[in-house]
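Slide 14.
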Amino acid sequence: MRILLGFLTLFFTLITAQAADIELQEDYKAYWGSTSLNPSRSVYVKESSSNGTSDPHLIYLPFDITELATDEANSTSAYSVLGGETLPPIQLPIISSGLSDGMFSDNPCVGIYIKNTTDFTRYVYIAGKMAEEALYKVSGGIFSTFAACIAGTSSGEDHLSMSSHQERVLWLHLGVFCSSGRQCNSTDSFGVASGIEKDLDLYIFGLSSEDYGIATEVTPSNDTISGKGQYFELKLSSLISTYATELDDLTRGDERLHATFDGENNESLFGDGVLMNIAVSYAAPVASSLTLQEAYDAGVDDFVLKFFEDESTLAGTFDVMGLTNGHSYNIGVAAVNKYYFSTRVSPSLAGKPLAIEAFLDEKSCFFLSAGFKTDHYVLDYFRYVRDHFLKKFAWGRAFISFYYAEAPRYAMDIYYSPFWSFCIRSAAYVGYFLLNYGLWFLSFLGLGGVARLFYKSRLKAK
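Slide 15: predicted structure.
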């Protein structure tokens, strides 16, 4: 019994020890805004499961450059989807060349949604450092509202109080952060080709008393503040890719177009940072790749942008969903990274979605058409087998007649069932493989059998 009680005590201690005084709000979000980017926008956050100096929460913050912000062709804002599904792209926070104390005339502010997990008032501090610095320093520039942060009329506070179990957005002015006893300058060059990426490390923690002033050096692992807060890494970037995604094919489906694309030229800049794919609908065909700003200037039609967050690859396929059957579309596609920067949008291809009933009737291969839901090379292959093989024989013609009489009643059920659609596609791929490569496969097995018999006969001869 004593052992059991000891085990339960240890287990309870371990569980409760994991809770910090300041934690992320459950529906966690971070925000990015400035005098130019007003109101603020929600940005991408990669939440850490363990949280610590080596595994912080990552907040991705895109910015524009003073020298390029008014240059529509080269501005990094021209590549941003941070404004959502409405073009033209919004103006990102502007930072001047060489991250320095004077770079923040646009008042960039980041908002972090946190909560006080305790039953008591907590005084919340932000200690920060550049990635290359060794020590954290308590920062000023903390504001309770976005409006106060971008006003630029004060240096903010060195801390804010949070009542018991309160949830709030804490706003940090990056200009004050850099002037609070730390050097934020950089010799990195800005530009479309090179751009810049910079990391700022933060530790946000809550205390029961007001103990620290601006620029006070702290060590998050010491007994006073250890386990009292959360580690963050602010990742700032103006690094964009001037390569385009290539749209190789656009095939029809019901209220959708199936896009096959390739953007591997962007791998050095995007890599595994691809967050989603987007589609742009043009009012007329477009023969060249464009930035999002140029796409808007070229003229858009029906919808502006569609986001596909379940798709996250530089090359592959995705369905442009939610389209109107019978309407002609000129579609361009692009990939988007975690900073919400897109690649250049591909030249457009034309496509017209077709209602499933009309699609199935037109293609005649009811089961396969329902399984694939769009034009597909496997469909083309089996139609070729039907027309150039089955129709030459009486039994084949009888099978075709029976199939056309019975298959339509099941096609819609297959189309709307993910399970049966998957089964049909799997069977079709197997059939395609066997009909195309089965003879070679059997020949290979036959040769293997002959070689085995020959080997055995040689053994017996010895």
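Speaker note: The chain has a mean pLDDT of 79.
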